[in-house]
C-alpha cells in the first residue's frame, strides 16, 4: 500500500473518532438516558472504522517494516531460484552477477526428473552415479524418477546433467523429462525486490528469500496480534472517545484541580 494512502486512511479513522466525540458532546441535549446508546454507537463506529481504514494499514505493517529493515541491514539476503536448463546457465549467472547489489552467485543443487524406475535400478544408480561423474558430491535417488544432485564447486551443472542423462538412457532406456538447477544469489537487502522482479523475467522461479531481514519480518508477524483484535481495539477506542465526550466537563474540572494543586506546591 502506498504511504499516502495509508496516511489518508489513518486520517479518516481519526475523523470518525472526532465524529464520535462530537456526538458524545450532545449528551446534555439528547439526555443522559441515551448514554448507553452513545457508548454503543462509539464502539460500532470505531469497529467499522478499524475494519475499513486501520485493518488494511495494519496488514501492510510487515511490508513497511521490511523496507526499514532493508535500509538498516548490512548482512546480505539469499535469493534462491530454480533455473530451467533450457536457458544458458553460464549466461544467466554472468548476467545476474553484473546486476547492482549482487554479491556471490553459484549453483547449489540440481533436480532431474526422469521416467519412473525400479528399486533395483535405483540401487544401481546410487552405486554408480559417483563413477559416472566424479564431480557429483552428493545425491538422492527416488523410484518416482526424481534425482537430486550436488556437484563440486566450480563444476558446470549442465555438464553433470548431460552426463547422467546420457548414461541413464544408454544403460536403462530412462528418459530425462526435465531438469532444474538451484542457484543461490547473495544480494544487498535494499536491492532484493528489484532483483527478484528482474530475475523472474527469465525462465526462472524465485523459490525463497532468506536472511536477517526476512527473519526480522517473520518475528514481527508472529508478535503482531490478529486483525480481529485490532478491530476490537478500534471499537474500544471509539467507545472510550465517546465516554471522553460525555464526561469532558468532569475531565476538564479534574485536570484543572490537578493543575491548581501543582501550582500551590510550587
UniProtKB/TrEMBL annotation:
Keywords, alphabetical: Membrane, Transmembrane, Transmembrane helix
Claim: Transmembrane is one of the keywords in the record: yes
Transmembrane segments: 6-27, 34-54, 230-255
Record-given protein name: Uncharacterized protein
Native source organism of the sequence: Methanobacterium alkalithermotolerans
Source lineage: Archaea, Methanobacteriati, Methanobacteriota, Methanomada group, Methanobacteria
Amino acid at each position: 500500500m502506498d504511504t499516502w494512502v495509508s496516511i489518508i486512511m489513518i486520517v479518516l479513522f481519526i475523523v470518525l473518532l472526532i465524529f464520535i466525540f462530537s456526538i458524545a458532546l450532545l449528551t446534555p441535549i439528547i439526555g443522559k438516558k441515551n448514554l448507553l446508546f452513545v457508548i454503543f454507537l462509539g464502539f460500532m463506529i470505531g469497529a467499522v472504522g478499524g475494519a475499513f481504514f486501520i485493518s488494511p494499514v495494519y496488514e501492510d505493517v510487515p511490508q513497511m517494516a521490511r523496507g526499514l529493515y532493508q535500509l538498516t541491514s548490512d548482512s546480505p539476503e539469499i535469493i534462491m531460484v530454480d533455473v530451467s536448463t533450457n536457458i544458458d546457465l553460464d549466461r544467466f549467472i554472468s548476467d545476474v552477477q553484473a546486476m547492482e547489489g549482487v554479491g556471490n552467485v553459484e549453483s547449489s543443487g540440481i533436480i532431474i526428473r526422469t521416467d519412473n524406475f525400479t528399486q533395483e535400478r535405483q540401487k544401481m544408480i546410487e552405486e554408480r552415479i559417483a563413477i559416472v561423474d566424479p564431480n557429483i558430491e552428493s545425491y538422492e535417488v527416488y523410484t518416482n524418477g526424481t534425482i537430486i544432485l550436488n556437484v563440486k564447486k566450480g563444476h558446470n551443472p549442465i555438464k553433470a546433467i548431460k552426463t547422467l542423462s546420457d548414461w541413464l538412457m544408454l544403460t536403462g532406456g530412462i528418459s530425462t523429462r526435465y531438469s532444474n538447477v538451484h542457484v543461490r544469489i547473495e544480494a544487498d537487502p535494499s536491492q532484493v525486490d528489484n532483483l527478484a522482479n528482474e530475475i523472474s523475467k527469465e525462465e526462472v522461479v524465485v523459490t525463497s528469500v532468506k536472511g536477517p531481514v526476512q527473519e526480522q519480518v517473520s518475528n514481527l508477524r508472529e508478535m503482531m496480534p490478529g486483525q480481529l483484535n485490532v478491530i476490537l481495539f478500534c471499537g474500544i477506542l471509539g467507545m472510550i472517545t465517546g465516554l471522553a465526550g460525555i464526561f469532558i466537563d468532569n475531565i476538564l474540572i479534574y485536570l484543572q484541580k490537578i493543575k491548581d494543586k501543582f501550582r500551590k506546591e510550587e
